[in-house]
User: Fold this.
Amino acid sequence: MTTAVLACEILKYEVEAAREKVNCPYPVIYFDGGLHSHPPKLRQEIEKQLAALPPEVDTVLLAMALCGNAIVGFAAPCRLVVPRMDDCATIFLHRDDKRYANLKEIGHLYLSYGYIHVKNFVQDEYEYALNKYGPRRCQKLTEMMYKDYVSVDVMDSGAYDSYDPQFLAAVEKVADIVGCPYCHVPASNLVLEKLLSGRWDEQFMVVEKGQILQTEQFF
Assistant:
């Protein structure tokens, strides 16, 4: 029997950095990060990828989090191991072995390399509104959407150069859209490193084959 990794492509930079650091030999399957905007479709994709795995795979490491309940409510086809956290930002904001369901601050928009270079939701939504509604209405909609935000936070996990000028230029564009300053916040790749190396403590949930994962188990 063997193990595979199923990961959101938005986490690709961090997953690959963790694989290299812990010398993880398992194959990784990435799914479309854009599906996070449609949790039912994301769930369908996850079920599809799990069903397509070779029969010798008995354990799947899920490099993602609760993510809009996309991974709850269906019977696990094999053993699943998943970070016991609400979303990917909380995964990166963990810096030690204590588990927190949610480490985000209200009014803060968290960014990583993948959020910018794999799927830039803020930029994509802004351009869609601009093309559909024109500059004036787009601006009003944008201000309404982000009126409660006070900061755009770049998570400095160490998995990539978060001070890269090209990356920061893209971050600045997002900050301009949101209407907030941006800053760097301490983060780490610890959770993914533990996931891929088998150090599954209270930060993780191990779901045996046939069990049904419930939202309450994350909190």
Observations:
- Residues 60 and 80 are 5 Å apart (CA to CA).
